[in-house]
Amino acid sequence: MSSFDRRVVLSGAVAAAVGSSAAATEASGPPMIHHVFFWLKTPGSKPDRDALIAGLNTLRGIEVIRQLHIGVPASTEKRDVVDNSYDVSELMVFQSVADQKLYQDHPLHLKFVKDCSHLWSKVVVYDSIAA
Predict the structure, then answer these.
(1) Is the model more confident about 62 or about 29?
(2) What's the pTM?
(3) Residue 123: beta bridge partners?
(4) For the chain, which residues make up each domain, given as ranges?
(5) CATH of domain 31-129
């Protein structure tokens, strides 16, 4: 095979791979953001906060989670639009709404809720996809 033929074959293979990747993304929809805020039953309790964070870290074993950030309120400028009354937050990125549903039903997530729900008094969830 000449070098020209190899380039044609290789460029065709690359184009096919890119096309199939784009098709897979279109088929699954836009990525989904899942942001959860937790208020502890005992506000300011470091042991409870640490236990909740440890529980959240167990969720890293769920394969459909593309990214996971676990955080606590930042010491930023106090403004009327900033709500830092929560104790712990988690931000997850999923490839699709379907993957987020798999996460909701996953045994590790169900175990987390069972093991840690006694720690919080309130949970607020914000789910979004690209506009």
Answers:
(1) 62
(2) 0.77
(3) 38
(4) 1-28, 31-129
(5) 3.30.70.100
